[in-house]
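Quick one: structure for this chain?
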Amino acid sequence: MRTSAPDRVYEQVKAGILDGTHPGGDLLTEGDIAEAVGCSRTPVREGLLRLQSEGFVKLYPKKGALVVPVTAEEAADVWEARALVEGWAAPRAFERGAQIAERLDELAEKMREHFVAGDVTAFSEADRTFHETIVGAADNSVLTRLYHGLRERQVCINAKSMRASTARMEQALADHARFVELIRGDDVEAFIALTHEHLERARHNISERGAA
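Got it. Here's what it folds into:
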């Protein structure tokens, strides 16, 4: 089934925002987007309205769409909300560890492959999916949807942070390998402790880096 033009606009522009092609502060014109996607301006407006509703852009009539930069305050707020959800989910997901261990192992391996290839955006996407898998295993559909939105914004934050430091990517790889090891075992307290340690490292990276 062919994807609709508004959906193509939404997906292409959003991908550009997440991978840094369209950094915060960029002004995107309807004409340029229409040409890049291969459609008229009407579906461009529809796609941009959807992105605006998700906080990725701000529309200015007759000018275009401004990519909303991640401020230091927003990054801190995203981290705090993420910490609440992941902290709540950790013990509940651990109970279903046997159901998700293989998937987590696959995602950790993808992260290693992307690290070797130097693909920071794909690395961050695999990281996001890894943690979404854990939250999803806690079996609360409302929090899972909320977390999905948080982690999309987190990709914007993480990608720049990871590009700034190979050591951070290496630490993330070590943490994720340990997550897989622990969820295959029976030490729930160690799994919860690693969750908090991993989140604290993310908070430190945000405060050290400042706004994206």
